[in-house]
Amino acid sequence: MLVSYHDIVKVLPVIQIELYGIQHCFLIQVHLLKNILLIFKNHFRYQFKVLTCISGMDYPENLYRFKIAYELLSIKYNARLRLKVVLDEITPINSIEKIFAGATWWECEIWDMFGIFFLNQANITRLLTDYGFQGFPLRKDFPLTGFTESRYNVIQSRVVYENVELAQEYRIFDYMSPWESLQQS
User: Fold this and answer.
1) Which residues, other chains included, contact 129 with Cβ-Cβ below 8 Å and sequence gap of 6+?
2) Which residues 6+ apart lie within 8 Å of 179 measured at CB?
3) Is the C-alpha dihedral spanning 83, 84, 85, 89 positive or negative?
4) Which contiguous run of DSSP H or E holds residue 84?
5) How many Å apart are CA 158 and CA 75, to the nearest integer?
6) What is the pLDDT of residue 69?
7) Are 1 and 77 in contact (CB under 8 A)?
8) How far, CA to CA in Å, does 95 sit from each of 14, 63, 75, 154?
9) Is 4 a residue whose pLDDT tops 60?
10) Which of 75, 128, 129, 168 has the least CB density, counted as fewest CB within 10 Å?
11) What pLDDT does residue 94 have?
12) Closest CA to 58 of 146, 135, 145
């Protein structure tokens, strides 16, 4: 690469820098994402022309619950770069589909799984869950069993949706462990 990553920090407003092996990761502000992606894509010294992935992460204990990582590839300079942004549950993020056309699928997937809404996204739709699905399954506060279950009803000749009912009641186990019985002897 023609320019060092230390020069990037001097020019662009980076909150935090992380280093994973030889790959650099920059934490940036949400409202600057589109501008920084345009710089990295079109500047002759960077040329990160390929968006390889967008990933969502959920940290419910943090003030800014969600983190989104954008992974870029510069084929000309054989370099990879990761940009991360953090946001809360109610703040939407601007779509980057106008900068990278392949971002549409990943943005729909993140909305479907985490509930993070992308502004100016032309085709925000559920990809991995049913149309009537309620909730966002990759959030840490989503119940493991889900809210509804689907099954095929032979009498009605169609798929029916029913609320989940757990068959086992809550139990309290108050047994003495084998180690505790040895201490009493």
Assistant:
1) 112, 137
2) none
3) positive
4) strand 79-87
5) 50
6) 96
7) yes
8) 20, 22, 24, 44
9) yes
10) 168
11) 94
12) 135
Residue range 115-126: average pLDDT?
Answer: 89
Contacts of 121 (CB under 8 A, 6+ apart): 95, 97, 104, 107, 108, 111
What is the rounded CA–CA span in Å between residue 98 and residue 133?
A: 29
Contacts of 24 (CB under 8 A, 6+ apart): 5, 17, 18, 81, 82
Distance in angstroms (rounded) separating the CA atoms of residues 154 and 124: 34
pLDDT digits (tens, 9 = 90+) for 80-108: 899 999 999 898 999 999 999 999 999 99
Length of the chain counted residue by residue:
185
The predicted model scores a pTM of 0.77
Per DSSP, the three-state class of 143 is coil
Contact between 163 and 148 under an 8 Å Cβ cutoff? The reply is: yes
Condensed to tens digits (0 to 9), the pLDDT of residues 55-87 reads 999 999 999 999 999 999 999 988 889 999 999
Kindly list the distances between the CA atom of residue 43 and the CA atoms of 7, 25, 60, 84, 148, in Å, as whole numbers in the listed order: 14, 18, 36, 20, 49
The domains found in the chain, sorted by start residue, are 5-127 (3.30.460.80)
pLDDT beyond 50 at 119: yes
